[in-house]
Structure formats: C-alpha cells, structure tokens
C-alpha cells in the first residue's frame, strides 16, 4: 500500500495565494511556544548529564547566560537541589555588581562555588599580563587547571551557536582532549536527541544547554520567568571612555590612555565579561521590556557591538576554542 | 507579503506562542545553497549590520561588486581557505510568525553523514537543484536521505531560474520528476518552488519574473507549514532520564522520574507499564518544571510520580499499559555509518537507545544500499563512512524499541565504540522506506537477495 504524497508546485496557479489559508499551530491544544521548546530541550540536556557523568560543574560568571543556565538547572532537578557545583573563572577585573550577584545567588540556593583566579596565576608567574590589559584570553589556563584538579568530567557553558561563526559549528556535547582543545574536524556527529558523552580518562565534555537560544530568546525568557539580573544590564549612569569604538569603564584593570577622555553617559551592558574588553552601549532602557525592544531593533550582534576579544582577528574565537576556551 | 521586522515590538515578553521550526538544507555549493541561506537570513532582516559589513568588506576584497551573501554562512578558517563546508552549521533567524533553527549541511557526496545528522532533528528539508541541470544523482541521494530519516516535509527549491529565462516548462519538468521519485520513497509532503537565490526571486519576496507561479515563497512556506503532528495520535513513550529523590525532612519519600516525553500524551490517572521489567502502576502526579498539571505531551520535559513504589531507574521506559512497545534483544535496522573506521560483522559495540546504553554485537550486515538508484549490494561484510546499509544486532539486555517509522525518537539509536567512545553508526529500527518503496526496492533487487525488510 502506498502513501499518497501531498504535492504542491504552485505552477499554473497564477494569482493564487499559495497556502495562506494555513492557520499555523496555535489551534492545536498540544502546541509549545518556542520558549517552552527551548526550555524543555535545555532541561533534557541537564538531566542527561546528571545521569551519565560523575562530576559535572556549571561555569558561572554572574552574566546573564550563566544566570539563565542556573535557573534551568534549578528547574530540572526541583524539588531536589542542583546536583552540580559552580565554577567561576575570575579574571580579577569584575564588575562589583556582578560579583555581589554571584555571591548572593550561591548563598540563596546553597550551592558550592569554586573560583579559578587569573590573578593567582599572574602572581605565581604562570601567566603574563597582556600589554592591552585584557584578561579574557588568559582564562583558558586557570579553567583547564580547575578541570584537571577537581577532575570535572562535564563542564556546562552558556555558549550559544548564534553568537559567532565558530560557535555555529559547536556541538551540544563537545568532547575535549586532555589539553581542552577543540578540533572542529574531529567532532562527533550529533544525531536526534542522542548525546554521546563517553570519553576516556583525562578527557572531558563541554556541554552547551543554550546552544539553540538566540540573544532575544534569552531576554524574552528572563522577562517571562521574572529572573533578577545584575543592575548593569539595565540603563544607568557610568563613567566611560571610548576605545576601539566601544565605551569601556575605567577600573583597576586600567583606564583611559592619552587622548582618551572620560565622560558620564547613560549606558547598559549587553554582555558581561572582563571589564577591559566588555563595552557598554548607549541606552536609556531601564526595564526589561525596554531592553528587549532595543535588542529587537538593534542592527549589531551582541558580541560584535561589545566584545573587543572577538575583534582581535577574523578567526579569533576559532583559535581560542582550539586552545581550550569555552 | 508585508516586509518583515525581526520581532513584533508589542511582543516583548514572548507571550505570543511563536512556534519553532527546525529545518535542514541539502545541496552543493554549486547549486547556490550558501546563497539561498544567505538570502533567507538577509531578506528576513536577520543579518545584523556588523555581519553584513564584514561580508561587504570581504566581497570588495575579492573584487565583487555586490556583497556575496554566500559569505554570510562562511565558517572556519579551513573552509574559507578551501572554499568548502566541512560540517553541519546551525543558523538562527526569526520572523514575527515563527522562530527557525536551520541545520545547514554540506552536500558533497562524501558528506552523507552530515545530511543524515542535519535531517535527524528536522521537521522539513529543503533540497536544492540547479534549474540548468535538473534532477541529478545527488538530488536523488538527498531525497533518499530525507525519506530514510522520515522528514515530514520536503521542499524542492529549483534554483537559478534566472539562467533558464524563468521558463515554466523547465520548472514543471523538474518538479514532476522529483515529486514522482520522492513520493515513491514515501515522502509524505513535497512542495516545489522556483527560485533565484542570487536575484531573490521567491525566497522571501514573491518573484515578478514568474507570474505563472502562484504558490508561496520559500519563507512563506517555512512560516506556515504545520510544525507539530498531533501527539495524541501516538502512544505515549517516557524514557526515564534521572530519578529525583530530595530525601529532605520535608520530602522524605519523594521519588520523581525525570525525563522528556518522547512521544504521545501522559495524563494523571493513566495506567502504565514500566519496561523492561513489565511492572505496572498508575500516574499519580505530573509536574512540568515546577507546575503541577493533569496532562503533558511530547516534547515537554516533565517529572512523573507513580502510585506504587517500584524499582525504576535511568534507562527504563514508562508506556501506556494498553500500548507498550515490543521488548527485544534482536534489532534489525537501517543504518548510516558515520565514523571513519568501518563497521564489521562480529564487532562488539555499545548501543545507545533513548536513555539506555547496552552492549551489542553486530550479527550480520545483510546489505549495503546505493542511494543513487536504491540498488542493494548483498553481504558487503562491512560498512564504510557514509555507507547506508541494513544491520542485524543482538543486545546483551532487552530494549523497548519502536519501529523508526512510528517514532523518530524511540526508534533511533547510536552504535558507539566501547574502546574510546567514538560515535560509529546512526540506526533506525525496522524497515527502511515506506511500504510502497520497500516493495519496489525489493522487486528491483537481485532475485537471490532475500534480505528481511520487515519485522
């Protein structure tokens, strides 16, 4: 017996309206919104790791993507606590609001936080400060050291595939060798929802539960779930100076050089990383609805607008991932 | 069609039920696939200024006049240097009507496994052909992969219509040939659209050069194609991922079975059986991520609590007592081999099915399938990278396995190398194609080849 195919070619159908009569999906009682679908997928990933790994850890910086990851992890295991520790790779150049948020969150949920500090490595002479003061590229060494010394076998990162072209090729389960390296040509094919986390001793797996989320999805979900964020994500007055087309905030990491002038502006942050390479954007969006409206209308990608570390070269992210970066 | 903005400004909290469509593209660089994807992203206003500037800079650097949209989908350094695509890339865009996840798969011969990967999660596949060349071997291969992976909707995009003077007969002949072929493989729904990705005809904007075409543009079709089949028509399948036991003073006896509903609908009060043990109970409570509900459906992630205290752990499957899957240790399947090292008869492997991983032996490889003409080659002895074939497996423990034709989620599995964890093979339990295609393929096969195609 044969299945008759529904065929449509539209030819000889001049002036027709195609399938414009289709009512879409809202009329089935079993529809899921895109946020529900993404949430369900992320929770499935968290539970999969909990079922298959011995010592998982969540990278947690106090930035919005890691806050979202933690929120999803809390949902995945409720009413029991999250069965993972947190790891913060601390560049030493943090926004105070973000560190404060980090510590409050850890206390509220009774979580265990490990901190891997770039400053410690610099003090011990194992890392050297870069002339530009940027410490993001220095995070890889402390990260790998923490993974090795705590024997973490799965490391959750908040990376999204919409962020950057090398990340577009990343897997949900990304196998890393003992050097933490990412080889795009040696990735395992990822089929259906069957994630293969098997690895040899010394290897570990980076897991990206937000792989399929976009910046807008993240913000819409934060709004829907009423998740608190550090205040720097909303418009506030701040002293900034312009460098490489970005507004940077002076701090212990450094400040304006000759010819760079500090001024007070109304700004907010789209991403939060090391202070030396995270730029603010001019904004008066002081509510989440206003932030979402600005993002929806923005003509710049999140990293393109605000991350100096990605502008270093055409293949900056790809190179850092090969060395063991997130 | 009205012009698109990325998001409707009144929908800032995402409360409107925007649906999510996962789709895959197949076609080669020469067919203009990168240009089509670039055009979709560009014309749906999903390309942001800094990405476009980078493309314009690169295009000018190569001496091109207009920005080369194919560059938008450029990935890694090796790919730029060699002008190839080495892997599946995922791209994201949205219109006010829908959110899209695109698995962009390279279309060279040796990359069958990439298209299989992209198609495995896709609800729709776009197969691209060059109007000047029509249906070629590779087109047939793409149609066969879409049929094998049971992708519900297939779009044939007949590209470069500008190079054949936008002639309707050219399009009609290609659409006819492809549709006949794909329908014979059991593809349930095929839509053919004449386009020029380079000029933008019928990708996002309706073509003014093809008045004879009255159907939707590619984007319109993507926006309106039904995303969800009705889950209430499928038997419920719930693979247990993780057992939640807080063991706190407040919740000393709580035992929740956490997982994602693989198919169908679960209701409080349902009589269920737990496989492979066969013990029965009823659903006492359903919890969708913190909210108690009476009903939940695929693909929701939920926590199930049962009325009886049973010994249930990760890898077990909860199913309706009235419609459980067969439990077996003998698996027959169509597979795509995805590793560089071959799969051989007698090989010991791990088989990962839903949340359960068991040891297995490859008992037999009855045939290898050539996708170009669906001819079968009996007893190949091994399968190499990108080969499609039939395998017979024996597992160390019973599996609650559905035919892939009935459930892509509970009928699929991976074979894994126990030595180092490499993913070897992607498997689909049961028959390869829809019944009509099976019969045709069996009739066309050599008379002495009596491979078992049906359970």
Automatic annotation (TrEMBL), chain A:
E.C. number(s) listed in UniProt: 2.7.7.4
Compositional bias (Gly residues): 12-21
Location of region: Disordered: 1-23, 307-326
The protein's enzyme class: transferase
Top-level division of the source organism's lineage: Bacteria
Catalytic activity: sulfate + ATP + H(+) = adenosine 5'-phosphosulfate + diphosphate
Record-level GO BP terms: hydrogen sulfide biosynthetic process; sulfate assimilation
UniProt keyword annotations, A-Z: ATP-binding, Nucleotide-binding, Nucleotidyltransferase, Transferase
Signal peptide segment: none
GO-annotated molecular function: ATP binding; sulfate adenylyltransferase (ATP) activity
Biased composition (Low complexity): 1-11
Pathway(s) this gene product operates in, as recorded in its UniProt entry: Sulfur metabolism; hydrogen sulfide biosynthesis; sulfite from sulfate: step 1/3
Pfam family, one: PAPS_reduct
Known partners and oligomeric status: Heterodimer composed of CysD, the smaller subunit, and CysN.
PANTHER family: SULFATE ADENYLYLTRANSFERASE SUBUNIT 2
Protein family (similarity comment): Belongs to the PAPS reductase family. CysD subfamily.
The protein, known as: Sulfate adenylyltransferase subunit 2
Organism the protein comes from: Streptomyces chrestomyceticus JCM 4735
UniProtKB/TrEMBL annotation, chain B:
InterPro entries: CysN_GTP-bd, CysN_II, CysN_NoDQ_III, G_TR_CS, GTP-eEF1A_C, P-loop_NTPase, SO4_adenylTrfase_lsu, T_Tr_GTP-bd_dom
One GO process term, biological-process aspect: sulfur compound metabolic process
Domain Tr-type G: 18-232
EC number, UniProt record: 2.7.7.4
One of the record's GO molecular function terms: GTP binding
UniProtKB keywords: ATP-binding, GTP-binding, Nucleotide-binding, Nucleotidyltransferase, Transferase
Keyword Transferase: yes
Name listed for the protein in its UniProt record: sulfate adenylyltransferase
Organism annotation: Streptomyces chrestomyceticus JCM 4735
């Amino acid at each position: 017996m044969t299945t008759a195919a529904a065929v449509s070619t539209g030819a000889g159908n001049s002036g027709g309206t195609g399938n414009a009569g289709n009512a879409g999906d809202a009329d089935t009682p079993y529809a899921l919104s895109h946020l529900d679908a993404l949430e369900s997928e992320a929770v499935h990933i968290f539970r999969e790791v909990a079922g298959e790994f011995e010592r998982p850890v969540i990278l947690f910086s106090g930035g919005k993507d890691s806050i979202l990851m933690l929120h999803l992890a809390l949902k995945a295991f409720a009413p029991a606590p999250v069965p993972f520790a947190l790891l913060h790779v601390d560049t030493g150049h943090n926004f105070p609001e973000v560190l404060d948020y980090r510590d409050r969150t850890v206390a509220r949920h009774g979580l265990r936080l490990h901190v891997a500090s770039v400053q410690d490595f610099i003090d011990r002479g194992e890392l050297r400060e870069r002339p530009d003061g940027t410490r993001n590229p220095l995070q890889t060494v402390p990260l790998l050291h923490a993974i090795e010394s705590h024997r973490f076998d799965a490391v959750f990162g908040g990376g999204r595939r919409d962020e950057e072209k090398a990340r577009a090729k990343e897997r949900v389960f990304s196998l890393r060798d003992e050097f933490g390296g990412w080889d795009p040509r040696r990735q395992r094919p990822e089929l259906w929802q069957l994630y293969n986390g098997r690895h040899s001793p010394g290897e570990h797996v980076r897991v990206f539960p937000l792989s399929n989320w976009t910046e807008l999805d993240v913000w819409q979900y934060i709004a829907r779930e009423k998740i608190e964020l550090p205040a720097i994500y909303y418009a506030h007055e701040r002293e900034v100076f312009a460098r490489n087309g970005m507004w940077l905030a002076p701090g212990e990491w450094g400040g304006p050089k000759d010819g760079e002038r500090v001024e007070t502006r109304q700004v907010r942050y789209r991403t939060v990383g090391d202070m030396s390479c995270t730029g603010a954007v001019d904004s008066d969006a002081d509510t989440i609805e206003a932030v979402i409206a600005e993002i929806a209308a923005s003509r710049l990608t999140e990293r393109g607008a605000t991350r100096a570390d990605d502008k270093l070269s055409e293949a900056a992210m790809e190179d850092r991932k090969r060395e063991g970066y997130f | 069609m009205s012009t698109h903005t990325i998001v409707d400004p009144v929908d800032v909290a995402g409360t409107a039920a925007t649906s999510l469509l996962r789709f895959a593209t197949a076609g080669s660089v020469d067919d203009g696939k990168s240009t089509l994807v670039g055009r979709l992203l560009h014309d749906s206003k999903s390309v942001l200024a800094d990405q476009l500037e980078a493309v314009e800079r690169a295009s000018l650097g190569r001496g091109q006049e207009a920005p080369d949209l194919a560059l938008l989908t450029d990935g890694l350094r090796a790919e730029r240097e060699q002008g190839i695509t080495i892997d599946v890339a995922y791209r994201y865009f949205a219109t006010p009507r829908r959110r899209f996840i695109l698995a962009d798969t390279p279309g060279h011969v040796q990359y069958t496994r990439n298209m299989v990967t992209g198609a495995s999660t896709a609800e729709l596949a776009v197969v691209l052909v060059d109007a000047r060349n029509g249906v070629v071997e590779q087109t047939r291969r793409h149609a066969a992969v879409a049929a094998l992976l049971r992708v519900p909707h297939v779009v044939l995009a007949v590209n470069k219509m500008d190079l054949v003077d936008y002639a309707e007969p050219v399009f009609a002949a290609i659409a006819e040939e492809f549709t006949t072929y794909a329908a014979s493989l059991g593809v349930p729904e095929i839509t053919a659209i004449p386009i020029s990705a380079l000029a933008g005809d019928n990708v996002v904007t309706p073509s003014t050069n093809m008045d004879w075409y009255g159907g939707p543009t590619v984007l319109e079709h993507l926006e309106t194609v039904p995303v969800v089949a009705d889950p209430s028509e499928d038997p419920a399948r719930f693979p247990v991922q993780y057992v939640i036991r807080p063991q706190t003073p407040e919740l000393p006896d709580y035992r929740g079975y956490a997982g994602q509903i693989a198919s169908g609908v679960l209701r409080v009060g349902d009589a269920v059986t737990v496989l492979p043990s066969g013990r029965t109970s009823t659903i006492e409570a359903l919890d969708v991520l913190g909210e108690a509900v009476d009903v939940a459906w695929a693909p929701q992630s939920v926590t199930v609590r049962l009325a009886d205290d049973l010994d249930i752990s990760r890898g077990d499957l909860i199913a309706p007592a009235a419609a459980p899957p067969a439990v077996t240790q003998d698996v027959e399947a169509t597979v795509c081999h995805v590793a560089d090292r071959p799969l051989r008869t007698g090989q010991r492997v791990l088989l990962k099915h839903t949340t359960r991983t068991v040891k297995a032996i490859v008992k037999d490889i009855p045939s290898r399938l050539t996708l170009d003409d669906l001819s079968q080659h009996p007893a190949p002895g091994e399968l190499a990278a990108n080969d499609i074939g039939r395998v017979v497996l024996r597992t160390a423990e019973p599996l609650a396995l559905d035919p892939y034709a009935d459930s892509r989620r509970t009928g699929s599995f991976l074979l894994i190398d126990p030595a180092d964890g490499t993913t070897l093979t992607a498997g689909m339990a049961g028959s390869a194609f829809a019944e009509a295609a099976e019969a045709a393929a069996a009739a066309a096969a050599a008379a002495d080849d009596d491979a078992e195609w049906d359970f």
